[in-house]
Amino acid sequence: DGDDGVEITRKQVKKLINNNVEVISYFISDYYGHDSSMTDFRRMYGKDSENIDLSNMTLVANTLNKRFLTK
Is 45 exposed, middle or buried (0-12, 13-18, 19+ CB in 10 A)? Predict the structure, then answer.
C-alpha cells in the first residue's frame, strides 16, 4: 500500500533528522503544482522539501545556496 511506504519513509527521515543528519529533498517533475504525489512527498520529507519545475533547474542551485548560507 502506498500509504505504508509514505509512513515508513517519513519515520526513517525523522530518524535521520533526529541524528543530526541534514536532509535535502527535491520533488522534480514537469508538473509544477500540488497534487497527491507532492502531498505525499511533503509528508515524507517535511516542510523543507522543495518542489522543482523540470524546466527551471536553476531553482535547485538557488535552494542549495539558500540552505548553505543558513549554516
Answer: buried
20: left (phi over 0), alpha (psi -120 to 50) or beta: left
| Cα Rg of the chain, angstroms | 13
Among 71, 14, 70, CA closest to 25: 14
Burial of 5 (0-12, 13-18, 19+ CB in 10 A): exposed
* Grid cell of 18 as nine digits: 533526529
pLDDT band at 13 (very low <50, low <70, confident <90, very high): very high
